[in-house]
């Protein structure tokens, strides 16, 4: 690329940071579905000129959006981000590179980051770039007009980084704590506060929903879930455990301060020193969409399973199905509106009145016809994080990550509110 061309592009970048639209939405919305083969949560954005749908695996720990630029990337609105530009410094990139092919992912004098595939724990160098992204706005209850952002920042990955991701996926959507995560970029494009909400569906046929921006978050039949949220502070972790390359930098992941666990409202005894975060980022509790089930450090897991079993000591058990330790026939448990009738589990937060309650729909999982197991797994003694709250425990709960106020809003099971995460009205009026 000639010097004149690159300084011309630089001019375009800085003059069009803002969205190219007349309407200023307060919130945006995307669908999210579970890929059953991989247990990954997959969303769909629209990008490029001409615009095409791009499937992405959701990564709550990811710092930015990365998309494969190797294969089939055709767009007249693709612009590499050059070194020493405003966008490049926003990314915190320390890597400037020359690449000679002049095609998406490979240009001269470009700013580079390290896109990360958390499932295979691999990362590689990738060109930072800008392209058009289009997304539905929302008033919180239905789809609104599509809005377009001309220069939406992402990083190019390569085809081999897609290994281990759900079929058809072209990259990963980073929702982590970072000023270039998807939620941060949407918020700055439309001048709303950096808040987003995830509501993962347990339905195999209907998608859940991701909101960018503040509530209302309305689910059929007209229930505004933002009214039911309880809040707990998001806790800083001094060391990022998500990927080896980020060691020594603050975590992009979301940690909360679980102080104790109650089963059937009785506090269980466990080694609480494992629940706080150490100097090297070890211990504590985080929320993750990467694990299908909540993972606990071995001693916590054993105390937890024993206490849960004790509350159900009169109910006959069946042979456990790996990786679970405690399983029952549903007919011996009974069923309620919020799933199998089992003791409630409370993750108690900043004080005894603030707790995240889990009912049978989130605590138990069906493993075969009529057989349900306690859906928590033993992470071993060597885990970095003591409790990692996983996908099954998040389903049909709305979680609002309010980065502006550094707090997590959580709804507990929407089933107890007569709705589900599959009940957002995605029917378009056009
Ligand atoms: C964004 O984050 C990077 C890396 O942490 C930092 O260097 C940069 O100053 C931040 N930019 C803004 C505008 O906050
Ligand atoms: C609790 O966990 C900490 C951290 O792993 C460990 O050093 C300590 O020995 C444990 N305490 C007990 C009573 O097991
Ligand atoms: C869903 O939203 C569409 C408009 O986007 C509206 O026409 C329709 O009535 C809504 N459905 C329900 C059940 O409210």
TrEMBL record:
Localization in the cell: Secreted, Extracellular space
Keyword Signal: yes
UniProt keyword terms in alphabetical order: Secreted, Signal
Main location: secreted
Record carries keyword Ribonucleoprotein: no
Domain of life: Eukaryota
Gene Ontology MF terms in the entry: aspartic-type endopeptidase activity
GO cellular component, one term: extracellular region
Domain Peptidase A1: 41-411
Signal peptide stretch: 1-19
GO terms of biological process kind: proteolysis
Membership in a protein family: Belongs to the peptidase A1 family.
Protein name listed in UniProt: Xyloglucanase-specific endoglucanase inhibitor protein
Organism: Medicago truncatula
Gene behind this protein: 25486101
């Amino acid at each position: 690329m000639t010097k004149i061309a690159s300084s011309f592009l630089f001019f375009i970048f800085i003059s069009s940071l803002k969205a190219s639209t007349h309407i200023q939405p307060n919130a945006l919305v995307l669908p999210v579905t579970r890929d059953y083969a991989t247990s990954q949560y997959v969303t769909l954005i629209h990008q490029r000129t001409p615009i095409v749908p791009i499937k992405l695996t959701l990564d709550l720990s990811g710092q930015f959006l990365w998309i494969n630029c190797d294969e089939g990337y055709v767009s007249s609105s693709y612009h590499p981000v050059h070194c020493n530009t405003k966008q490049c410094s926003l990314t915190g990139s320390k890597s400037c590179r020359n690449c000679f092919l002049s095609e998406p992912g490979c240009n001269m004098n470009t700013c580079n980051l390290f896109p990360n595939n958390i499932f295979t724990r691999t990362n590689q160098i990738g060109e930072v770039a800008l392209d058009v992204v289009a997304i539905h706005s929302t008033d919180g209850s239905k789809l609104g007009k599509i809005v377009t952002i001309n220069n939406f920042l992402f990083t190019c990955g390569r085809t081999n980084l897609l290994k281990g991701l759900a079929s058809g996926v072209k990259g990963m959507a980073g929702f982590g704590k970072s000023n270039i995560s998807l939620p941060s970029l949407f918020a700055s494009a439309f001048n709303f506060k950096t808040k987003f909400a995830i509501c993962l569906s347990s339905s195999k046929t209907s998608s859940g929903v991701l909101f960018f921006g503040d509530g209302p978050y309305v689910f059929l039949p007209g229930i505004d879930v933002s009214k039911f949220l309880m809040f707990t502070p998001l806790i800083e972790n001094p060391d990022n455990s998500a990927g080896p390359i980020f060691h020594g930098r603050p975590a992009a992941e979301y940690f909360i301060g679980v102080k104790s666990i109650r089963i059937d409202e009785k506090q269980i005894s466990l080694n609480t020193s494992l629940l706080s975060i150490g100097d090297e980022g070890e211990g504590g509790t985080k929320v993750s969409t990467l694990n299908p089930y909540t993972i606990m450090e071995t001693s916590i897991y054993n105390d937890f399973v024993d206490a849960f079993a004790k509350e159900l000591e009169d109910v006959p058990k069946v042979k456990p199905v790996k990786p679970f330790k405690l399983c029952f026939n549903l007919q011996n448990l009974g069923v309620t509106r919020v799933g199998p009738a089992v003791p409630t589990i409370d993750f108690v937060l900043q004080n005894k009145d603030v707790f995240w309650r889990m009912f049978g729909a989130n605590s138990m999982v069906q493993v075969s016809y009529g057989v349900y197991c306690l859906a928590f797994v033993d992470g071993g003694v060597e885990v970095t994080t003591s409790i990692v709250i996983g996908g099954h425990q998040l389903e049909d709960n709305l979680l609002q990550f309010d980065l502006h106020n550094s707090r997590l809003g959580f709804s507990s099971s929407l089933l107890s509110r007569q709705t589900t995460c599959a009940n957002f009205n995605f029917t378009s009026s056009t």
